[in-house]
Write a structure and sequence with these properties.
Radius of gyration: 17 Å
Number of helices: 8
Largest sheet: 4 strands, parallel
Shape: elongated
Distance between the termini: 27 Å
Strand content: 5-15%
Structural class: alpha/beta
Strand order of the largest sheet: 1-2-3-4
């Protein structure tokens, strides 16, 4: 059994889980993270994780997750709202929107994004508005926070 985080210095937990599951398919993986976004949970699940628990979980909950996963079950912390993942899967961002979100997460301004992608600033602003609407995010600050917190999602 492996317990991993999503954010790690050399390789993120999603990539690490894919490698672990491809090389050692019988190994069980549980994500132990501070990220409670359903998108992160779903990516770990798709990578092959059998569980996902929050870092602020009690020792009792951690041990319960280990026991459940060890006996071929799955364990997803109820604090992460995993039940909402199916709803969020219906949100489809275009390749360009994902690219722009990643650049926003890297701290780029609309003008810097426009220059890098060789498109107009108004086009970037239109994509930003569409992302806000699709993701049900309100305001520039929330969009930046969303992009920074989830920038590992948009590779």
């Amino acid at each position: 059994m492996v317990i991993t985080d999503i954010r790690m210095p050399k390789k993120d937990g999603i990539s690490a889980t894919k490698v672990i599951k491809s090389e050692f398919p019988e190994t069980k993986v549980i994500a132990f993270s501070m990220f409670d976004q359903p998108e992160a949970v779903e990516q770990m699940r798709q990578a092959g994780a059998s569980g996902y628990i929050m870092k602020n979980s009690s020792l009792k909950k951690v041990l319960e997750a280990i026991h459940v996963v060890r006996t071929n079950g799955t364990y997803f912390d109820d604090a992460i709202g995993f039940n909402n993942v199916a709803t969020n899967e219906t949100i489809k961002l275009s390749t360009r929107e994902k690219e722009i979100l990643r650049l926003i997460g890297d701290g780029k301004t609309s003008q810097e994004i426009a220059d890098q992608l060789f498109i107009g600033k108004t086009t970037v602003d239109t994509h930003r508005k569409n992302i806000l609407k699709k993701m049900n995010i309100h305001g520039k600050t929330d969009l930046i926070r969303f992009a920074v917190e989830r920038k590992y999602d948009f590779h």
